[in-house]
UniProtKB/TrEMBL annotation:
<feature type="domain" description="Thiamine phosphate synthase/TenI">
    <location>
        <begin position="377"/>
        <end position="562"/>
    </location>
</feature>
<dbReference type="GO" id="GO:0005524">
    <property type="term" value="F:ATP binding"/>
</dbReference>
<dbReference type="Pfam" id="PF08543">
    <property type="entry name" value="Phos_pyr_kin"/>
</dbReference>
<dbReference type="InterPro" id="IPR013785">
    <property type="entry name" value="Aldolase_TIM"/>
</dbReference>
<feature type="domain" description="Pyridoxamine kinase/Phosphomethylpyrimidine kinase">
    <location>
        <begin position="260"/>
        <end position="346"/>
    </location>
</feature>
<dbReference type="InterPro" id="IPR036206">
    <property type="entry name" value="ThiamineP_synth_sf"/>
</dbReference>
<protein>
    <recommendedName>
        <fullName>thiamine phosphate synthase</fullName>
        <ecNumber>2.5.1.3</ecNumber>
    </recommendedName>
</protein>
<dbReference type="InterPro" id="IPR029056">
    <property type="entry name" value="Ribokinase-like"/>
</dbReference>
<dbReference type="GO" id="GO:0009228">
    <property type="term" value="P:thiamine biosynthetic process"/>
</dbReference>
<comment type="pathway">
    <text>Cofactor biosynthesis; thiamine diphosphate biosynthesis; thiamine phosphate from 4-amino-2-methyl-5-diphosphomethylpyrimidine and 4-methyl-5-(2-phosphoethyl)-thiazole: step 1/1.</text>
</comment>
<dbReference type="GO" id="GO:0004789">
    <property type="term" value="F:thiamine-phosphate diphosphorylase activity"/>
</dbReference>
<keyword id="KW-0547">Nucleotide-binding</keyword>
<dbReference type="InterPro" id="IPR034291">
    <property type="entry name" value="TMP_synthase"/>
</dbReference>
<dbReference type="Pfam" id="PF02581">
    <property type="entry name" value="TMP-TENI"/>
</dbReference>
<keyword id="KW-0784">Thiamine biosynthesis</keyword>
<dbReference type="GO" id="GO:0009229">
    <property type="term" value="P:thiamine diphosphate biosynthetic process"/>
</dbReference>
<dbReference type="InterPro" id="IPR004399">
    <property type="entry name" value="HMP/HMP-P_kinase_dom"/>
</dbReference>
């Protein structure tokens, strides 16, 4: 059938232009388009909810997030102390700045403190097309403070909800939107979801469409498609724009887009419920989404997080129900991870979106990035030796530390990766409980996976600069160097120390030319990094190495002299005592 395909509303032609424009930009920069959520919300100074939660959620989900700030709140774990609404025209200005320049996939709204701000948002959505609108109808914080007053209700109901692809009220908000209806059970929540759907999402957009006899435009469709409605004769058909090519889907409006709106009534605050139950209703089916209720006080911002995660998943191309399920799981995981963290003195703390702050991985962490005096007695393990003497790696490490080792490196050339990772994790527990850093030889992947303190790499491993990029600024990187040039490269690459040797010949490294005491002296004198001497060092020659008193030499690294012995504890103690006695620059 004929559908003309040429009659475009202003917004669609704008969008078309933008597709063309952005493909030009992509061509020019050789870049790729990335999923993008625009969060239109309030700032929470405590950073658990609002804009800050949205930024962290999108970062955690791998989606870019731009922000339009509607209000600045003075807020903490106790409550909301003050609210400063951003002037409406300034909200409009921020919307224009972002939407006129960036290709936003999904808009997520949170705190909209006044009717004027809602109108500014609605106005921009008619000017700039996006694929979806997620509305979190924020009204009252869990602490009971009002973030958007009752005067907003009719605008929410009549103008914002109808534009939404999904609306995510909590129990109190659903009740307020439905004129104070009581919500006390899951059955009440279902009822509310149905009523809100009837009120709601997308319906008036469609009314507007039907009222407009020439052309109808809807702003979104998933999976990177933009849907467009067009009135042709008496039929309304849905057309889909993919890139700049127009397809007619053959669906008529009634069967398709009228089902588009979705409601999620969140039950985080449902009294007396053992599970955290949310009700999802898409106009056709109800889904009861359940997860176990995490016992924690750290739930501030769950609502904002859930909505921005839904937005992030939609931006990546997920269908709605999948996005909602992923988002619920994301909140549950973050709450479980953060249930014991302590931030603030109030009754409802924030949680950790990036799953990085937990105290047990930090309690014995080095405070400073790297302390060169840790190189004093450097124990390097060897699984062959431990096997020979019938002890586990964990026991060997524990004995070395008890004997005075100040840093440990796991040097395991012949173990399976899976076993190595498990061993590393157990050794980390031992090392952390003594505040001793644990490094991994060569295996950056194992260091990352186990969250060890760093790596020691050789000249044939990855360059220090690549290791630094992979490991980030906080991890320790040591590099084996024999020459001044290599030491210089290690410094440029962002290493923390160098291992210099072999000073004496050794069995632990085949075909490794020794550089002798002279070579060690030469490299140490030129090095900009602290140095640990390595290679054939034992109780009989450690004193000689140390008494050289060369600059930057901070300690000795030992393999066989500690681990190719029957009693690691005794040997380490012996070497430690010897090093302590020596009049050297090392300490
Ligand atoms: N203790 C909990 N354990 C597991 N999930 C929870 C818990 N509390 C809330 N949730 C989930 O978090 C999401 C947000 O729900 P909630 O009803 O708390 O929203 P909200 O009140 O708008 O949040 P807030 O105002 O704190 O930002 C829902 O999916 C809910 O089921
Ligand atoms: C700014 C802001 N937005 C949303 C909420 C709801 O949690 C909050 N407490 N603060
Ligand atoms: Mg809540």
């Amino acid at each position: 059938m004929a559908y003309g395909g040429v009659i475009l509303s202003n917004s669609l032609s704008f969008y078309q232009k933008r597709i063309v424009m952005s493909s030009r930009v992509l061509e020019k920069n050789g870049g790729a388009s990335i999923p993008h959520v625009l969060s239109v919300a309030g700032s929470d100074s405590g950073a658990g909810a609002g804009i800050q939660a949205d930024l962290k959620t999108c970062a955690a989900r791998g989606v870019y997030c731009s922000t339009v700030i509607t209000a600045v709140t003075a807020q903490n774990t106790v409550g909301v102390q003050a609210v400063h609404a951003v002037p409406e025209d300034f909200v409009a200005q921020q919307l224009k700045s972002v939407l006129s320049d960036m290709q936003v996939d999904v808009v997520k709204s949170g705190m909209l403190p006044s009717v004027g701000v809602v109108k500014a948002l609605l106005q921009s959505l008619t000017e700039f097309s996006v694929r979806a609108l997620v509305v979190d109808p924020v009204m009252v914080s869990t602490s009971g403070d009002v973030l958007a007053g009752p005067s907003i209700l009719s605008t929410f109901r009549e103008e914002l909800l109808p534009m939404a692809d999904i609306v995510t009220p909590n129990i109190k908000e659903a009740s307020a939107l439905l004129g104070g209806m009581r919500l006390e059970t899951v059955a009440d929540m279902r009822n509310a979801a149905e009523l809100l759907h009837a009120l709601g999402p997308r319906s008036s957009a469609i009314d507007k469409v039907l009222g407009d006899k020439t052309v109808a435009v809807t702003t979104c469709k998933y999976n990177y498609l933009i849907a467009r409605l067009q009135k042709v004769s008496c039929d309304i058909h849905v057309q889909v724009l993919y890139g700049c090519v127009v397809y007619d889907t053959g669906f008529s409006l009634g069967e398709n887009l009228s089902q588009k709106g979705n409601v999620l009534v969140k039950g985080g605050d449902l009294p007396g419920s053992l599970d955290a139950v949310d009700i999802f209703f898409n106009g056709e089916h109800f889904y009861e989404l359940r997860s176990s209720r995490i016992k924690t006080h750290n739930t501030h911002g769950t609502g904002c997080t859930l909505a921005s995660c839904i937005a992030a998943e939609l931006a990546k191309g997920s269908p709605m129900l999948t996005a909602v399920r992923v988002a619920k799981r994301f909140v549950e995981t973050a709450l479980e991870y953060s249930k014991d963290i302590l931030i603030g003195n109030g009754i409802q703390g924030p949680f950790d979106h990036l799953l990085r702050l937990k105290s047990d991985s930090h309690s014995f962490r080095r405070k400073d990035a790297f302390n060169p005096s840790d190189l004093f007695l450097y124990a390097v393990t060897d699984s062959g030796m431990n096997k020979k003497w019938g002890r586990s790696m964990e026991d060997a490490v524990a004995e070395a530390i008890q004997g005075g080792a100040t840093i440990v490196q796991l040097r395991e050339k012949d173990v399976e990766t899976r076993d190595f990772l498990e061993t590393t994790k157990s050794c980390l527990v031992v090392c952390r409980s003594h505040g001793v850093p644990l490094l991994i030889n060569d295996r950056i992947d194992v260091a990352l996976a186990s969250d060890a303190d760093g790596v020691h790499i050789g000249q044939s491993d990855m360059p220090a600069t690549v290791a630094r990029t992979l490991l980030g600024p906080e991890k320790i990187i040591g590099v084996s160097c024999k020459t001044i040039e290599q030491a210089q490269q290690a410094w440029i690459g962002g290493a923390d120390y160098i291992g210099c040797g072999g000073v004496y010949s050794t069995n632990t490294k085949a075909n490794n030319p020794t550089i002798g005491l002279d070579g060690l002296k030469t490299v140490c004198s030129a090095s900009k990094l602290p140095v640990v001497a390595i290679g054939g060092i034992n109780a009989s020659n450690a004193g000689i190495v140390m008494q050289m008193r060369v600059p930057n030499l901070k300690g000795v690294a030992v393999v066989s002299a500690l681990f190719d012995r029957e009693n690691v504890l005794v040997e380490t103690k012996k070497l430690h005592a010897l090093l302590m006695e020596a009049p050297s620059k090392m300490q």
